[in-house]
Amino acid sequence: MLKAGVLGAGHLGKIHLKLLNQSDKYQLVGFHDADKENAKKVEAEFGYKFFETVEELIEAVDVVDIVTPTLSHYDCAKLAISKGKNIFVEKPITNTVQEAEALRTLVAEYKVKGQVGHVERFNPAFTAIKDLLDKPMFIEAHRLAEFNPRGTDVPVVLDLMIHDIDIILSVVQSKVKHISASGVSVISETPDIANARIEFVNGCVANLTASRISLKSMRKTRFFQRDAYISVDFLEKKCEVVKMKDAPKNPGDFDMILQNAEGIKKQIYFANPDVANNNAILDELETFADAINNNTKPVVTLHDGTEALRVANMIIDQF
Question: Which stretches make up the GFO/IDH/MocA-like oxidoreductase domain (predicted)?
């Protein structure tokens, strides 16, 4: 079992502590939190060992799980890597692209593994359909949330939209050609609602909307590709796949047939992939353990996290 320690015991940090403690692939050694009052509460309530300094925790583990505020991601990760430790770092990977690129260099130099916490990659609705995605040419994503003061210190692009940016980059596999975007600050000092249009070199276009001032929550992405429409509901963990194939010569009474202007007939049919019940955060942590133990590539690499941050910053620069 890999010895793991958590830096940061806030809302998400507590979830990571709980799951690492439950996992068969990790031995939770303890945690560090800069807020000593909070740290003592967590230690007293859950029994996790509190380490007084970041350095002491890093020395005691094989894997450092970084769930601190984004501004400190780079310093924590750099220190851990320099001690030869594998790092799991929450999204966004760092505060700047330059910091993210520096971490990638360090990981290669010290021959350790790194993974970024883009948890939607492990959403069961997405994993159920990802192998059906084949060169989508138009993508539409909506990620709407009710207002919550937590996270409003950064633009909604880094708070919410970055989830969809990462998903889309993982699917399209093409360089970004052009971005146009707009954002509006309604309650916060940074934009609370944003829309971005990303054009890729291969011709794909992605339209993304994110809001943290909505009356209801929504996390839906729709993919349009040749002969298929695929919808993913990340919130409800549901997916819908509508596909087309050449119509049979003698269609049945209940077959759905479309005919285009050229007279070509297509049959519409529905696929219903199985959506397994899972804990996406536990899955991302355990697949990272597998990558370390088997010396394989992590599911969400530091490169992936860097590119998601790069595109997010390109969007913010358009505001």
Answer: 156-216
